[in-house]
Amino acid sequence: MNDVGPSAFLALAAVLFSLGLYGAVARKSAVMVLMSLELMAVSVGLNMVALSRFVTPAEMTGQLFAIFTMVVSAAEIALGLALVLAIYRQTRTVELSSIDTLKG
Amino acid sequence: MTVDWVALIPALPAIAFALLAPLPRALRNRLRWLGLAAVGGSFVLSVMAFAAVWPGGVKGAVAHDASWAIALVGGVDLSLGLRLDAVAAAMLLMVTIVGACVQVYSLHYMRAEERVGWYFAVLTLFTAAMLVLVLARDFLTLYMAWEVMGLCSYLLIGFWHEKAGPRRASQKAFLTTRVGDVGFAIALAIIYATTGSFEFDVVLGSAADWAPGVATAVALLLLFGAMGKSAQVPLHVWLPDAMAGPTPASALIHAATMVAAGVYLVIRALPIFEASGVALTVTMLVGALTALLGGLVAAVQHDLKRVLAYSTISQLGFMFLAIGAGGAVAGMFHLVTHAFFKSLLFLGAGVVIHATHAQDMREMGGVAKSLPATSVLFGVGALALAGVFPFSGFWSKDEILYATWKHGHHLVFFIALFAALVTAFYVARLWCRVFAGPGGSKRLVEGHPVMLVPMGLLAAITAVVGVAAPAFSEFLGYTGHWPDPAIALTSSFVALGGLALGWLTYGRRDPVLNVRALVTRAPRLYSIVEQRFYFDAVYDRLLVRPYIRATEELSRFDRVWVDGAVNGVAALWRAVSERAWEFDVRVIDRLVNESARVSRASGSTLRRLQTGRVQTYQRYVLGALVALMVWIMVKGA
Asked: Which residues pair with B217 in a beta bridge?
């Protein structure tokens, strides 16, 4: 177990974040974008847990923050899905490319 | 309020004019008899005036005297004054008779004219002015009337002002007489400066005491004014041109009355001339020259009215000659007789011109056959002009010759005699060309009775008035006399000789005296006379054309420099404002427009960033994040 250093965790978190970022930027469906956002939040939580474990093993700050993050993510996803549902009711679509009422 | 009856003499026609002038044309035309009525009333009053003066005989006696203050200018009391004496009474009768005759004649002659009412109004105003002039008791009143007559003359000569000829003639007459008037006006100024008054009594009474130069200067300046009005050489050029006016107007103005005003002025101012002495001689010489030149030119003119015009000039010369030679009463008498017979001749000429529709004597001839009455009446006037016994011209001319001889001016006497010969010659020429001779086959319309009756009256006066010569002298306070037998015979011989000469030249089919031969023998001499001694040409060359050129130069100066300056300033301001406009458009507007354009362009560019798609924004954030990281990494390194 000791062979696995923090960099492996950080790399995994970076990969997860990048996948999430790609998904948030590139996916068409609002639901998929929400899921991608979740992926990024998860990678952040992973970073916090990993860094807490390796940098300050005596304290639980990182783990606590990760739990916070999960709570916030759950609330966020609930809100996000509610928004997507509301948008769907309005426009009969969840395709982000066709939702551009903010266009200048 | 009592009305001064002497003042009514000129006031009646003046009122008639004042009534007629403002009326609309049609009404004025219908009321044209008003002028005649007024002049008729003046005639009746003139007879009363004559009776009031009768039997006269006292030099300088004044029968009636009145003046009205009209203005007080700078302490100078200006007043109009009328004075009735023997000279004035005689003139009044002459003016009103001729004036009334001409008005009656004009009733028919001018009946077809569109502006006949205006013609009669001016004719009446003219008569009023002449009556004021005759009755004036001071130089100022006389000068005023003098100028009104100048105006009326201008209006009547230019009566047909729609034609260029009368228009130019009226301007010429006005300007030429104005030249003389300037002399008159200066004389008035000197008179006032010397005596402090314009009244005849004061001025003439003190004339003998003036410094010798002053009297001469005043007399010569007055003479200059008189020369303009009475058409004396060298200011005579307007009178022949004045024939462009209606013929009856010529009869009244350019034969009988207005041209007599100059002579009358000299007679009125005679004490000044006598005080000078030199001025009298100048008057005589001017008169002699005018009598001679006028007569010679009259002898070669072809236009009927122009012959009469030059004849008038010549006869006025006789009057000046007589006054200058010391025979003022002779000049005065000739003034009266000439007024009657010359207006008669003009009225006769009017009938002939009406009948033949020509004015050139070469187109006439034999008129006597179809116009017997006119011919007889014209003949009376012609014989009087020629100076044939017993017609009035004989008597007055005889008096002039007598006065000239008696006062020892023998050279002038012979000049006058020669002028009388020429007069008789051109009278014969006129008669032979117009009334006698061939060409009488055409049926001509004899003058209307309305025209013939006034002519008959004038002819009757012309025929008999001469006998009154001695009585006339005594009436004016001079010693009357019957003609001196020697001079009467001489002048009769000259008159008949002139007539015979004219008949020999023009009256026979095979002329004894061939004019053509005469002309070819002395072409230079003939052309000098034929060109009216070049007076018009010289004036044209020396005065008129330089004047016109000067005015053209002035007008060019006006156009080039004055207008140029104004236009230049305008152009400058225009240029300045154009620059300002350009600055406004190019800089200020551009600044505003450019800033607006930049805003719009930047807006439309930037709006492309705002797609409204959340993911686009995310891409920007991603890009920015990457850039930030790169920057940190580079900086960190």
From this structure: none
The answer to whether the beta carbons of residues B131 and B96 sit under 8 Å apart is yes
Q: Which residues of B touch A21 (CB under 8 A)?
A: 622
- Pairwise CA distance, residues B448 & B374, whole Å: 10
What six digits make up the tokens of B307?
Answer: 């012959």
Q: Which residue of B has its CA nearest to A29?
A: B615
Inter-chain touch B613–A24, beta carbons under 8 Å = no
Q: How far is B623 from chain A (nearest CA, A)?
A: 11
Query: Does residue A104 belong to the interface with chain B, where contact is any CB pair within 8 Å?
Result: yes
**ipTM of the complex as predicted:** 0.79
DSSP string, B239-296: HHHGGGS-HHHHHIIIIISHHHHHHHHHHHTHHHHHHHSHHHHHHHHHHHHHHHHHHH
Contact A96 B611 (CB under 8 A): no
Q: Which of residues 4-23 of A touch B (CB under 8 A)?
A: 21
Tell me the nearest-neighbour CA distance from B584 into chain A, angstroms: 35
Task: Report which residue type is found at B441.
Answer: S
Instruction: Enter the pTM of the model.
Output: 0.75
Cis omega before residue B55 (within 30°)?
yes
Distance (Å, whole) CA B244 – CA B354? 14
A67 Cα to chain B: minimum distance (Å) = 26
Q: What is the pLDDT of residue B1?
A: 39
**DSSP code of B64?**
E
C-alpha to C-alpha distance for A55 and B208, rounded to whole angstroms: 152
- Give residue-wise pLDDT tens across range B105-146: 999 888 888 889 999 999 999 999 999 999 998 898 899 999
Which of B349, B312, B501 is CA-nearest to residue B435?
B349
CB contact under 8 A, B612 and A102: yes
- What's B418-433 look like in SS3? HHHHHHHHHHHHHHHH
| Structure tokens given for B362 | 């070469």
- Note the pLDDT tens digit of each residue in B514-542: 666 667 777 777 777 777 777 888 888 88
The answer to whether the beta carbons of residues B278 and B216 sit under 8 Å apart is: yes
Residues of A with Cβ-Cβ distance to B624 under 8 angstroms: none
Token pair 């006269």 is found at B56
Q: Report yes or no: A99 at the B interface, CB cutoff 8 Å.
A: yes
The residues, ordered by sequence, that sit 6+ positions from A99 with a Cβ below 8 Å of its Cβ are A30, A87, A91, A93, B612, B613, B614
Place of tokens 């100028």: B147
Interface of B with A in 585-624 (CB under 8 A): 606-607, 609-615, 618-619, 622
CA B125 to chain centre: 14
**Cα dihedral B558, B564, B565, B568 in deg (nearest 10):** 160
Which residues is B68 bridged to in the sheet?
B80
Rounded-to-integer distance, Cα B384 and Cα B378, Å? 10
pLDDT tens-digit profile of B457-510?
999 999 888 888 888 888 887 777 777 888 888 888 888 888 888 888 887 766
